[in-house]
């Protein structure tokens, strides 16, 4: 049960969901209709490609899956926590995500698969970085778990069973953030194309740099921030 959700958990979950929604819609609209923020559809497409003997498509899809996993590996190296709690490495992880998204843009503009792979790697890093908070699985790059938790919550309420309202609101924040990212990303893609990804790159970069500066406060004040 979630006893308390601090402000940074709400802001972080919602903001990262917006980022993932933007990245995913740009990949879908601009690069072979590929999902970049999750692997369910990609794995299904890989199965179809293998069944059809399409070696080129299979190689591309495998590259996307591998890139996402590599991003999760990077998160494991950088964050080193299985539970979501603030620490100095989150700032570094966000800066790495920003760099991956920024470097993806010129590659995507040349329709290179490496660009899509870098964007998928950024999503894998972000998805693994959030991990869990107070026993609740927090995934900001896809919505299957959030919609599942939403359904379970509603089912419990219909049966008169105890249900944690904060879990419901966390799901709704992430769902709304991802949808808002999809809408804004699609609108911007019409005018900016793949350069739209510079927006989530800037957002994650600013968040990472700001958080690192915040964590450096003890060096000036002698007091550790929360």
TrEMBL record:
Record InterPro entries: DUF1275
Entry keyword Acetylation: no
Name recorded for this polypeptide: DUF1275 domain-containing protein
Pfam families (UniProt xref): DUF1275 (PF06912)
Protein's organism: Marilutibacter aestuarii
Keywords noted in UniProt: Membrane, Transmembrane, Transmembrane helix
KW Repeat (keyword) present: no
Chain ranges passing through the membrane: 59-78, 90-108, 168-188, 194-214
């Amino acid at each position: 049960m979630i006893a308390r959700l601090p402000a940074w958990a709400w802001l972080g979950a919602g903001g990262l969901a917006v980022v993932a929604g933007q990245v995913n819609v740009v990949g879908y609209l601009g690069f072979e209709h590929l999902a970049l923020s999750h692997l369910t559809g990609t794995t299904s497409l890989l199965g179809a490609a293998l069944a059809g003997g399409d070696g080129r498509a299979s190689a591309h899809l495998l590259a996307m899956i591998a890139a996402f996993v590599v991003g999760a590996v990077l998160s494991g190296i950088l964050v080193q926590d299985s539970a979501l709690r603030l620490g100095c490495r989150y700032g570094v992880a966000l800066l790495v995500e920003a760099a991956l998204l920024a470097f993806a843009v010129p590659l995507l503009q040349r329709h290179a698969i490496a660009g899509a792979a870098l964007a998928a790697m950024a999503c894998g890093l972000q998805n693994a970085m959030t991990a869990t908070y107070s026993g609740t699985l927090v995934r900001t790059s896809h919505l299957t778990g959030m919609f599942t938790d939403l359904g379970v919550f509603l089912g419990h309420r219909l049966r008169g069973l105890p249900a944690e309202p904060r879990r419901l609101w966390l799901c709704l924040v992430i769902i709304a953030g991802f949808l808002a990212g999809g809408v804004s990303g699609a609108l911007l893609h019409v005018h900016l194309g793949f350069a739209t990804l510079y927006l989530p790159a800037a957002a994650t970069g600013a968040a990472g740099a700001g958080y690192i500066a915040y964590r450096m406060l003890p060096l000036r004040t002698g007091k550790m921030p929360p």
